[in-house]
Amino acid sequence: MSSPKSHSPALNVVGLRKEFRVKRGGRARTLVAVDSVSIDVHPGETVALVGESGSGKSTVARCIVRLVDPTAGAVAVHGRDMVGMTHRQLSQAYGDVQMVFQDPNSSLNPRMTARQILTEPLRLHTDMNKSARNARAAELLSMVGLGKEHLDRYPAELSGGQRQRIGIARAIAVSPKVLLLDEPTASLDVSVRGQVLEILHQLQQQQQMAYLFISHDLDVVRRISDRVMVMYLGAIVESGTTEEIFSNPTHPYTKALLSAVPQIDPEERRERFRLEGEIPSPFDVGAGCRLDNRCPLVQPSCRAERPVLAPVSPTHEVACPVVLNGERIAQAV
Amino acid sequence: MTATEPGNLLSVCGFSGGFKTPSGFKYVLDDVSFGLRESAMTAIVGETGSGKSLLALSMMGLAASTFVKTGGSIEYAGADISTYDDRAYRRIRGHDFAMAFQDARAALNPVISVGRQLIDACRAHRRVSVAQAQEIAEGMLRKVHVPEPAQRMRQFPHEFSGGMAQRVMLALALICQPKLLILDEPTTGLDVTIQADIMELIVDLVSSNGMTACLITHDLGVVAETCDDVVVMYRGKVRETGPCAQILQQPEDLYTQQLLRSSRFEELSA
After folding, report:
1. Could you tell me if B135 lies within 8 Å of chain A, comparing CB atoms?
2. How far apart are CA A160 and CA B207, in angstroms?
């Protein structure tokens, strides 16, 4: 089952861009929610997309499954282009890519039982007969640690953690190659969060699914992902292996983000790296670096040109010429 | 830390209560005892349904009218305030005790300007003119680092970001210089960088004014970085209380140990 990373990625996103036309004060303006985002996720790999609210991370996921149509860029799932697909082709493609949503209360139909929720994708994507679908639904429940007694319950009769597990079971029902997880643990208590993460890990081990894990919870990201991509105002500002990002955060925004996470254990704490103010409106982004007004390291050159990702190491990229030049100077000395 | 120690600003002693349901009486708080040390920041931690928010509301006299107290007391300034009626509570609420709620934008009145809300709160408890109150309100906004307070006073809650609204809420809570500040999940739903800024501000305000604070939260990281004492709750019961450093590093209670293991992801196999 295991495939080396040099093989073709299960999910391949290149130069993804999403613009929204927004009317404000009677005047239509263009909001760039996602700007040239490229992501590869290989089978069996977990790539985390982290960022704060409004960074565009959920829009990336919604573009991948075409819940919104990207303005530009290419998305391929298992080698098949998603962007040009018709609706009919898309509904077939959903056998390969599935999504788990943040809020299980609003992403499960309240009028459907767990059985109905779990057999619906099987009816659409497989040629199983009814008894096979029912058997598979029971199997799926046990895979996410629930029992047969939950089959005929409605979402309202389940706890938040159980509902999220139904959401995961629904997503994996058709054995997708790619799973998009949009903050799957954000609404859960810590004890339940651990169970859900463990289930996701076990499923990935068994089925070699590629996970794109969208989260703002850096503690979770650190524990479960192989690689991390940090988003700020629609663009990736740093990407690298989890080890590289957490032990050598390089972009000022990544530093600020990591140093703001409260830690139980004193030895884990980082000195605060402060940015000025709060995230600006995406309308107010200038031509240069998106962080220019908040960054303590800002140079005049930052405002002239938008920085692009450049390598720190073969697996670590950062979109900040200031720190990159600094590193080069440090290495030369 | 026993509930009746003299250094406590407020003591909760054997407090119990619950709600009548069709299937019988359901206890939500069961023999809860702890004290809030004067000038210290105490955390009440627990997961969903542990009763921590109801406890905070009970201290403020804001528990739902369907909540039935079955025993115990909440001692403040030599009196059992849990027996107070609404009228009596109104003298301490806002003046002696103030509370900041979880979702600030939802907790502020959406149709009244932020300035008006601050001025009203100020004039409800202090004998000041509108002009004086306006000045105090502006000063308060400055203190919680809201930029351009004079303009912001004229704006409405929906014009504030989540972080800025929480700052307004803190200004509103602190405008009458309360002795006790109760914070119910003040940073839940905010981004981590904003959370860090707000928690720094809270710690700063509480310590510089010598206030007593009670932080309701589920985030042990926040507790570890900001609080002095901690009360761990589970299903309406207090499982463990004591100094933060001791409880988080050497918990005695099994539930506390479990909560810490979960928070540190120790049960994950990967």
Report:
1. no
2. 37
Q: Would B54 be classed as within a structural domain?
A: yes
Range of the domain at B235: 1-90+208-270
**Per-residue DSSP letter, A244:** H
Q: Is the Cβ pair A264, B263 closer than 8 Å? A: yes
B95 domain-assigned: no
Indicate which of A46, A278, A279 best probes the interface with B, i.e. most B CBs within 10 Å of its own CB: A278
What total of structural domains would you count in chain B? Answer: 1
A94: left (phi over 0), alpha (psi -120 to 50) or beta: alpha
In a domain, B177, yes or no: no
pLDDT band at A2 (very low <50, low <70, confident <90, very high): very low
- A298-325 tens-digit pLDDT: 998 899 889 999 999 999 999 999 998 8
The reported pLDDT for the residue numbered B2 is: 47
- Exposure class string for B58-83: b at 16+ Cβ within 10 A, else e: bbbbbbeeebebeebbbbbeeeebbe
Query: pTM of the full predicted structure?
Result: 0.89
Which pLDDT score is estimated for A102?
A: 86
Stretches in chain B below the pLDDT threshold 50:
1-2
Token output for A125: 């994507």
Coil, strand, or helix at residue B165? Answer: helix
Q: Is residue B65 part of a domain?
A: yes
- Average pLDDT value over all residues in chain A: 91
Confirm or reject contact between B267 and chain A (CB < 8 A).
yes
